[in-house]
Amino acid sequence: VVTGFGEISDAGVRSRGLTLAVAPGARVVAPLGGRVLLARPFRSYGTIILLDHGNGWTTLVTGLGRATVRRGTEVAAGTPLGLAPGGDAPRVTVELRRHGTAVDLATMLG
Question: Which of 80, 79, 78, 85 lies closest to 62 in space, CA to CA?
């Protein structure tokens, strides 16, 4: 974990998720099942995936090099979503949200 929930980055931005250091080209998988709402490059965030898990729960994954799923696809937990970018220090960020509000994912892991 490079940046935890709520930490302030060097750029002065408060993290709304967990940023992970990953291997170049690593496979990134769905943390939970759901429907892909969005899968495309977005601004400076690399390729992003937005998953709808139902009941107001969504997950946003950013920083991917490319997506391997398309909008509208139903995925199960563990389904490959995409690949991390190449380079020296790739980072992928995962944000869990409930009704659009960021939730500290780390508190749900233990």
Answer: 85
Determine contact, residues 31/17, Cβ cutoff 8 Å: no
Token pair 């920083």 in the structure block, residue:
63
Residues facing residue 36 across a β-bridge? 51
pLDDT (tens digit, 9 = 90+) per residue, 34-90?
999 999 999 988 999 999 999 999 999 999 999 999 999 999 999 999 999 999 999
How many Å apart are CA 34 and CA 32, to the nearest integer? 7
Q: d(Cα 33, Cα 77) in Å, to the nearest integer? A: 5
Write down the pTM of the prediction.
0.89
Residues for the chain: how many in total? 110
- Backbone phi and psi for residue 31, each to the nearest 5 degrees, phi listed first: -70, -30
Check if the beta carbon of residue 91 is closer than 8 Å to that of residue 19.
Answer: yes
Please answer whether residues 51 and 58 qualify as being in contact, where contact means their C-beta atoms are separated by less than 8 angstroms.
yes
